[in-house]
């Protein structure tokens, strides 16, 4: 009645898409953090905990 292979293929692709979006968002967050750390180091900023 149902084509379970098609449903399984679509489900796998949706899960893979969510994993890719999650990985890209995680990498974006860490790259922003790294860029801020490098910018603070280059400008000689001490930070809130002197």
Main sheet properties: none
| Cα end-to-end separation | 69 Å
Oligomeric composition of the shown chains = single chain
pLDDT averaged over residues: 92
Strand pairing plus helix content: what structural class?
mainly alpha
Please bin the fraction of helical residues.
over 70%
How many structural domains? 1
Could you explain how this protein is built, in words?
The chain has 50 residues and is mostly helical. The chain has one domain (1-37). The protein contains one helix and no strands. The chain has one helix at residues 4-43. It is rod-shaped and about 70 Å long. The relative contact order is 0.07. The mean pLDDT is 92.
Secondary structure layout:
Elements: H1 4-43
Brief synopsis:
The chain is mainly α and about 50 residues long. It has one domain.
Essential attributes:
50 residues, mainly alpha, 1 helix
